[in-house]
């Protein structure tokens, strides 16, 4: 697993889990790894949840689709991120999950997941934290579609995807994976594909942002963030240690060391 977003999850796991718990967790991920081709559905809306899913490599997308075929991408899931806790909470899933491109995901079945949580009590704290971060991202996506204009929406999503993989640069910019097509970018921002194309061209003109060969190039992150009014607080990127300390205080956890 690579990228700053994965590192954040990794740091929390390393602090929370004891050496024995980490061995059990990593063995379960390896044992249950499964590959999906680009665009393949992993879960379809209305199905009974059957597994606890963790992204190992590639990106996944949550989406909902109307009867006439219109589709909205609700969330992007990057390496190291649990997909959801549906397995423990609902009878039928209310959204679909698919591979953005080639994807490797761990699918831990119900009984093994229950056993794993019992054997690794600190794991529950990690899963709880991941759901809190996922909900924070969802709130930002809601305001993105509800209040930002087209160029702000696309700039915001670019900033988020960059920050989740690379963190926030102290100066200048950099590059990161960007696996979305312009059609998927449109579905994630509530715009038409034509509008997205024009918006990307405008961002290229204004701040030299480029999408090329499944990579996003941002020469000046601060400039792009200013266009989007981007504030990375909702990503909780640097909160691994404080989050673990609070969990330890509340639950007596933190068995790593």
Automatic annotation (TrEMBL):
List the molecular function annotations (GO) for this entry: DNA binding
| Keyword Magnesium set for record | no
* Domain HTH crp-type: start-end pairs: 148-222
Q: Which UniProt keywords apply?
A: DNA-binding, Transcription, Transcription regulation
GO terms classed as biological process: regulation of DNA-templated transcription
Answer yes or no on keyword Transcription.
yes
Among Pfam families, the record links this protein to:
cNMP_binding, HTH_Crp_2
Protein name, UniProt field: Putative transcriptional regulatory protein, Crp/Fnr family
Q: Which organism is it from?
A: uncultured Sphingopyxis sp
